[in-house]
């Protein structure tokens, strides 16, 4: 027997909800791990990545690398932004904001170093990519996840939503 989960006008089967939650947790874990790895490595800096920038944001990347204050801010925001985004996605707390912010951040990574013909990078790539890489795929996955309110079914957003509903209707537990 197929069970359905309803939230407002959205209805999900068990397999649909489970699939969305698995994608949410895997993506959140990867982003959280990337941020944590940067935070735990005192040698890490975004300078190496930014120096490789060759496309639309290369001028901005060059400015950030040449300005120590801007680089420090970029490093801080990158590290702690990834951690906050990953935690938000995994826990379902401010999920939609976390998913959209993560999608935008990953798309910015893509715009700095896309796998296009004629662009060579000295940093090792993950496999052999052409046009589509892991940053673009993960950015799209986060955007798609933002469209589905799974955190309103499973996550802290659901708890907050239920608590607000009870307060508005005068129900107290």
| SS elements, strand count | 2
Give the terminus-to-terminus CA distance.
32 Å
List low-confidence stretches. none
Number of helices: 7
Secondary-structure element pattern, one letter each: EEHHHHHHH
Globally, the shape reads: globular
| Helical content class | 55-70%
Q: On the 0-100 scale, what is the average pLDDT? A: 85
Q: What is the radius of gyration computed over CA atoms, rounded to a whole number of angstroms?
A: 19 Å
List the helices and strands and how they pair.
Blueprint: E1 4-7, E2 10-13, H1 14-40, H2 47-51, H3 58-66, H4 68-91, H5 95-112, H6 134-147, H7 156-169
Antiparallel strand pairs: 1-2
Verbal overview:
The structure is a single chain. The protein is mostly helical and 173 residues long. The protein has one domain (18-169). The protein has helices spanning 14-40, 47-51, 58-66, 68-91, 95-112, 134-147, 156-169, and strands spanning 4-7, 10-13. A two-stranded antiparallel sheet has the order 1-2. Strand 1 and strand 2 form a beta hairpin. Helix 3 (58-66) packs across helix 4 (68-91). The longest helix has 27 residues, at 14-40. The radius of gyration is 19 Å and the shape is globular. The model has no long low-confidence stretch (mean pLDDT 85).
């Amino acid at each position: 027997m197929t069970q359905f989960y309803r939230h407002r006008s959205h209805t999900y089967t068990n397999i649909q909800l489970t699939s969305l939650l698995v994608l949410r947790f895997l993506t959140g874990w990867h982003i959280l791990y990337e941020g944590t790895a940067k935070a735990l490595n005192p040698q890490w800096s975004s300078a190496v990545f930014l120096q490789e920038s060759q496309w639309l944001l290369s001028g901005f990347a060059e400015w950030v690398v040449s300005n120590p204050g801007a680089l420090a801010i970029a490093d801080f925001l990158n590290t702690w932004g990834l951690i906050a985004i990953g935690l938000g996605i995994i826990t379902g707390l401010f999920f939609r904001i976390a998913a959209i912010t993560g999608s935008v951040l990953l798309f910015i990574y893509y715009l700095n170093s896309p796998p296009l013909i004629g662009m060579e990078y000295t940093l090792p790539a993950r496999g052999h990519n052409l046009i589509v890489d892991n940053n673009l795929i993960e950015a799209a996955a986060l955007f798609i996840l933002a469209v589905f309110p799974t955190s309103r079914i499973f996550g802290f957003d659901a708890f907050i939503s239920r608590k607000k509903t009870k307060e508005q209707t005068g129900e107290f537990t």
